[in-house]
Amino acid sequence: xxxxxxxxxxxxxxxxxxxxxxxLMEPWEKVLFYSFNLAMLGLLLYTTYVCLAFxxxxxxxxxCSFLGNxxxxxxxxxx
Length: 79
Known about the structure:
mainly alpha, about 85% helix, elongated, about 0% strand
């Protein structure tokens, strides 16, 4: 089987239309449906990016505090 990239993407799109039954929709319904799905995907990706950046920053600060001056770490525990 010879699958070129555009043909494979078209095949994936057809699978998506079959799974979501969007091939039965009218064109204006498809526009609303795809717009909503793209907006939700964008919000999901943005939220994932923000949360991952926050958690990575927190983990990096924690790691730096563990690898920092041991005396400062023990003093911060005492305080």
